[in-house]
Amino acid sequence: MAAALLSCCALLVACSAAPPRAPDHDARRSADSAGVIYVVRRQWHVDIGFAADELQPPLAALAASFPGAHYLLFGFGDRHYLLDQDRGVGGMLAALWPGAGVMLVTGLDASAQDAFGEPHVIEIRVSAQQAAAAQRFVWQSLAAQRGAITPLRAGPYDGSLYYASTQRYSALHTCNSWAAQALRAAQLPVHSAGVVFAGQLWSQARRL
Prior knowledge:
The chain is an alpha+beta fold. It has one domain (2-12, 33-207).
């Protein structure tokens, strides 16, 4: 039980990701490919991101909620833990069982490298079709509220919003499992089975 609780605690802390830092230089990104998927490590949590001007419908409609943002990052987490802030032992143990998920979307004015540091960002150059497939997976992870994709509430820091998710969170389907599935949706050679912690995905993304 102690080991399970420690693992659960690490997963929940992972999915309540660290905030971006202030930018220190102009945003830059690769221009020699049809698109880029950004894999961003926030301590024990991994986000998937795209340049705002590379978003394709229907996900492109989400950019209107983040005016001025040049990049959008998407992360998955446990709704009960993150929104209800039940962060005691009971909340941690509850996350071991499947429960409602939530999406955190973060708009960045500068690049992910500026916000999180060069060592914490991997750029994966992909075709337009691969980018569209990854974005379609992200869109399908967002749950409509009253027929529309609308935020549940403001996120934990400036430029972020919480959205309901169609996916459920558990100790075996974490923020990092979801990110691995997003890369697999783009037909990238990444496995998602058994991916729970950030390091398990990060080592795969680095090889790409």
